[in-house]
Amino acid sequence: MKEKILITGGAGFVGFHLAKQLLATRDVELVLADNFQRGRADNDFNALIDNPRVTVLTLDLTDPTVYSTLGNGYHHVYHLAAMNGTRLFYEMPQEVLRVNTLALIHMLEWFRKNNKEGKFCFTSSNEAYAGGLSAFNQLPIPTPENVPLVIEDTYNPRFSYAASKLIGELFVIHYAQQYDFRALIVRPHNFYGPRAGYAGHVIPDFCVRTAKKIDPFPIFGAEDTRTFCHIDDGVRAMIMLMESAATDKQPVETVHIGDTREIKIENLATLLFDVVGWKPHHLDKKLSPPGSVKRRLANCEKLKTLVGWKPEIILEDGLRMTYEWYLKNPGPQ
Ligand SMILES: NC(=O)c1ccc[n+]([C@@H]2O[C@H](COP(=O)([O-])OP(=O)(O)OC[C@H]3O[C@@H](n4cnc5c(N)ncnc54)[C@H](O)[C@@H]3O)[C@@H](O)[C@H]2O)c1
Questions:
Q1: What is the chain's alpha carbon radius of gyration, rounded to the nearest angstrom?
Q2: I need a labelling partner for 229 at 20 to 30 A (CA). Which of 108, 193, 203, 258 fits?
Q3: Cα distance between residue 12 and residue 27, in whole Å
Q4: In the chain, count of helices (H) and strands (E)?
Q5: Residue 11 DSSP class
Q6: In CATH, what number is assigned to the domain containing residue 36?
Q7: What Å distances lie between residue 70 and 3, 26, 33, 115, 184, CA to CA?
Q8: What is the Cα–Cα distance from 124 to 164, expressed in whole angstroms?
Q9: Does residue 268 contact residue 65 with C-beta atoms inside 8 Å?
C-alpha cells in the first residue's frame, strides 16, 4: 500500500514544491489541504494536481468541523498552513495570531486521535528567535536551535507571526510528549524559488522589479545580511528529516534548515543584476522596517549531522531559475 501524506498549505509556496518533489521521487498518495487564502490554483498547481496520486481538499483549518474530511492513518503530516507574508503581519496581526494558532491546535487534536503511527512536521520560522538576536545582542552567530526565543516588543505587529511560531513550537513539543507521537519542528531560513508569491519577500520583489526595469531601484535594509536556501534544497531537507530514524530518538527534534552563504541585501540585488544582465542607474536604499534584524545566520550543523544534507543549488543558479519564472509569471499588475 502506498504511504499517505498530508500537506496543509499545499497550494502555497513550500507546500507546492514539497508535493512536487514527493511525487517525483516517492511512491506516495498525497492529500493537499488549503483554503486558497494565499495559495493559488495557477497553471503550475493545476498541472501538479492532474496527477491521480493527488487529492485536493479546499477547507479552512480554523474550522473544527472540517477535520472529519481529512481522514486518518497518515504516515507523514506536514503542517505548513499559516498566514505568512510580512505585509499581513502589519496589516492584520490579530488574524495572523488567530489563524496560525487555532489551525495548529485543531490539527494537533485531530492528529493525535487519528494518526497514532504517524509523524508530524511543523514549520516554525527563523522569526521565532529573531527577537533574541537584537534583545540580547550576544546570541551566537551562526545561531543554533537552542537559543532563547524572544518576543522583543509585544506592541509591534510584526511580532504577531514570530509569536504564533513560538507558541506553535511549544504546542507541538508538549502534544508530542504528552500523547506520545513523533514530531519534527523545522525552522526554514529564507527559502526562495519560483512561485514564492508576489509581495513581502525580498527575492520575488527584486525579480519583479528587475523584470520591470524599475530605476531608481528600491532596496530595503540594504546593509542587512541574510542567507537564502533554494526551495528544492529546502524541501529535500524536510523530506530527509521526516524519513530519518535519526530524528525519532526523542519525541521531537527542532532543526534549522538553511544555506550558510551570508549575503548583504544590496549585494543580493547586485548578484541578480549580474545574472540578468541589466542594472539600474540608481539604488534607492531605505531602512528596513522596525523589528527586522540586521544579521541572521543559522547554524545548520544539526541538519548535517542528522541526515547529511547539504545545499546543491548555488545562489547564482537559483536566482536565474527564479527570475526566469517571474519573467513568465509577472503576477498582478
Ligand atoms: N517560505 C519561507 O522561507 C518560510 C520561512 C519560514 C517559515 N515558513 C513557514 O512555512 C510554511 C509554508 O510557508 P510558505 O512560504 O509556503 O507560505 P504560503 O503563504 O505560500 O503558504 C501557506 C498556505 O497556507 C494556506 N492557508 C492559510 N491559512 C489557512 C487556513 N486557515 N486553512 C487552510 N489553509 C490555509 C494559504 O492559502 C497558503 O497556500 C508556513 O507555515 C510558514 O510560516 C516559510
A1: 19
A2: 108
A3: 22
A4: 11, 13
A5: T
A6: 3.40.50.720
A7: 15, 21, 8, 11, 20
A8: 9
A9: no
Range of the domain at 58: 3-196+230-260+297-312
**How many angstroms is it from 80 CA to the middle of ligand 1?**
5
- pLDDT tens, 217-243? 999 999 999 999 999 999 999 999 999
Q: Of 275, 261, 263, whose CA–CA distance to 318 is shortest?
A: 275
Q: Does some domain include residue 84? A: yes
Ligand 1 atom nearest the C-alpha of 60 is 32
Atom 23 (ligand 1) nearest CA: 9
> Is residue 285 domain-resident?
no
Q: Which residues contact 155 (CB under 8 A, 6 or more apart)?
A: none
Cα angle, residue 176 at apex, residues 256 and 172 outer, rounded to 5°: 50
**Residue 61 Cα: closest atom of ligand 1:** 32
Total domains in the chain come to 1
Q: What SS3 state is found at 7?
A: strand
pLDDT tens digit sequence for 136-162:
777 888 999 999 999 989 999 999 999
Q: How many CA atoms lie within 13 A of 261 on its CB side?
A: 14
Does the bond joining 216 to the residue before it have cis omega, within 30 degrees of 0? yes
Report pLDDT digits (tens) over 79-124.
999 999 888 999 999 999 999 999 999 999 999 999 989 999 999 9
Answer whether residue 319 shows pLDDT above 90. yes
Pick the atom of ligand 1 nearest to 229's CA. Answer: 3
Instruction: Please tell me what DSSP assigns to residue 209.
Output: H
- Summarised one tens digit per residue, pLDDT across range 269-295 is 999 999 999 999 999 998 887 767 788
Residues with CB under 6 A from ligand 1: 9, 11-15, 34-39, 60-62, 80-84, 99, 103, 123, 125, 188, 190-191, 197
- Domain annotation covers residue 234: yes
Note whether residue 63 is domain-resident. yes
